[in-house]
Design a protein that fits this description.
By secondary structure, the chain is an alpha+beta fold. The protein contains ten helices and eight strands. It has a six-stranded antiparallel β-sheet with strand order 1-2-3-4-5-6, covered by helices on one side. The protein has a two-stranded parallel sheet with strand order 7-8. Helix 1 runs antiparallel to helix 2 and helix 2 packs across helix 3. The longest helix has 34 residues.
Length: 280
């Protein structure tokens, strides 16, 4: 369901009928008919212009909002993480460019029957930058339409084995396991691929915070550094200020985050006086 509420067309039709009746009564039949006919012709022209040209202008000028080096064509944009394509069949397709942590490439599709495709294409182009990935786009689009992420390719077993041998040969296996272990200590919130959930800004890692629209990895690291130095966030506004979020992303981000309590526990059993020597 869209977060935007539009007036029903019946309201406009009733307003036009009411104004027409008043014009006939005040100006007379001949003059009022002339004015009404002119207004009707103008309305038809504007409707046809919107029908044939407005959507084309959306598509044509949307990519001008994206950094030039990320634009592949008027209907395709790509960075190091994901590609977004507007197909001739009025669909938006978002794909991973590389295999993820689970050795799979994922994708999701937005259909015209569920949402106004050209308007959504324009919104995606406005937020798209070098650090945008499939998860952040899914979170953004999920505000207006249900997003179903699916796996469309998995890394061949032969390639996985070759990569593992290369890592062992270069001594990278141990360092990689240490990174994974440290990451697990810093983060207690997991972002699933098929279900978009709110992000706890007081416990999420920088990678998870970077999934928010308008927040890149640099801003996410600043958030984590600030949180480690000054303690937990007490309000959404403090988080938005530290992350450097642009004004048009503020409302969306507030609906996607929550302020949780610290999930780290302290061991108070060591403070019971045991092991002390008392000199009487």
């Amino acid at each position: 369901m869209s977060i935007y509420h539009r007036r029903h067309p019946v309201i406009y039709i009733m307003a036009i009928m009411f104004l027409s009746f008043g014009a006939f009564r005040e100006l007379g039949v001949s003059l009022a008919s002339y004015i009404y006919a002119s207004f009707l012709v103008l309305a038809i022209i504007l409707y046809l212009a919107k029908l044939f040209f407005a959507d084309r202008l959306y598509v044509k000028h949307s990519t001008s909002l994206v950094p030039k080096h990320l634009v592949q064509s008027s209907s395709s944009i790509r960075n190091r993480f994901c590609s977004v394509v507007l197909t001739p069949g009025q669909k938006i397709v978002v794909l991973d460019n590389d295999y993820g942590y689970n050795n799979a490439k994922r994708m999701f599709v937005l259909n015209q029957k569920d949402i106004k495709i050209n308007e959504m294409w324009n919104k995606i182009c406005k937020m798209y930058d070098e650090n945008t990935n499939l998860d952040s786009l899914a979170t953004f689009c999920n505000l207006e339409v249900y997003v179903n992420i699916v796996t469309y390719a998995t890394k061949p077993i032969k390639d996985m084995a070759t990569e593992a041998v290369a890592q062992n040969a270069s001594g990278l296996t141990e360092s990689k396991s240490n990174v994974v272990e440290n990451k697990g200590k810093d983060s207690s919130v997991k972002v699933t691929t098929n279900k978009v959930s709110k992000i706890d800004i007081n416990n999420a890692s920088s990678e998870e915070i970077a999934n928010l629209p308008g927040v890149n990895i640099v801003g996410a690291k600043k958030v984590v550094e600030y949180r480690n130095k000054n303690g937990l966030f007490k309000s959404e506004d403090d988080f938005i200020k530290i992350a450097g979020v642009k004004p048009h992303f503020v409302d969306k981000i507030k609906s996607m985050i929550l302020i949780g309590k610290s999930q780290t526990t302290t061991d108070k059993d060591n403070d019971d006086g045991s092991g002390r020597i008392v000199d009487f």
